[in-house]
Amino acid sequence: MTSGGTDMIRGGSMGTFLRVNRWLLAALLALGVAVYVSSRYVHQVLAVQSSTHTTQPVTTDVVIARTSLPAFSVIGVGDVMIERVPVTQAPPGSFSQVDQVVGKWTNESLSQGIPVVSSAIFAPQSANILASRIRPGDMAVDLPLTANDVVDGLVQPGDAISLFATITEHNGQQATEDFLNQVKVLAVNGSMTPATSLTVGQNLTLILALPPRQIAQLLFMQQKGPIYAALDAPNAKTPVPIPYTTSQWQSPVP
């Protein structure tokens, strides 16, 4: 057989092989492509995970208020909780353990979700609770009153009152006027929390917070005669009335 005939036989055999096994070859090619694509996908996923792991911020535990807390209240176990936050978001003076703040007192109101910081709380054993309630520039002074002079003994700590007194004017006439308004009551009978039992008809000693000038005015009025306390509406400014004089009392009703 000539070389040309041999080449024809070989070419025919190759063509026959390709025709018979074309699906096998296609499957092998598809498998190769799938393996390549899968390897590229796995490589990309691992790269993303590695990048995420390296850029994840460092976190720390921070004690936050579970519920809103009013000022000058005791912090209980159920009032606070732990939250994990980035270190850069932890405020100065924050706490990492609940037992560090439980039993402490708040010296300002705390909103729900706000971190508890050292400047917002104090310990009764190491701080004067009454003094912490006094605004800068004010002083605390006591005012003993009978039940008839203090809304039948129903004034409670946290209330605001106006104080009235009757004075003798230069012309000899007497005039009743309120000389102090919106005075904050810090404590009643030595207690800074509302009484657990009714105080109706009881004499009360009020602890008030006032600037020195108003304390001097209060002490002066105490020397002139009895003082009467009127309970103010919450968050309301009481307008100062015109003093009621003896001449008005003696004038006929129109």
Automatic annotation (TrEMBL):
Pfam families found in the cross-reference section: RcpC (PF16976)
Residue intervals of the Flp pilus assembly protein RcpC/CpaB domain: 130-231
Native source species: Sulfobacillus acidophilus
InterPro entries membership: Pilus_assmbl_Flp-typ_CpaB, RcpC_dom
Name of the molecule in the record: Flp pilus assembly protein CpaB
Superkingdom field: Bacteria
Record CDD domains: SAF_CpaB_FlgA_like
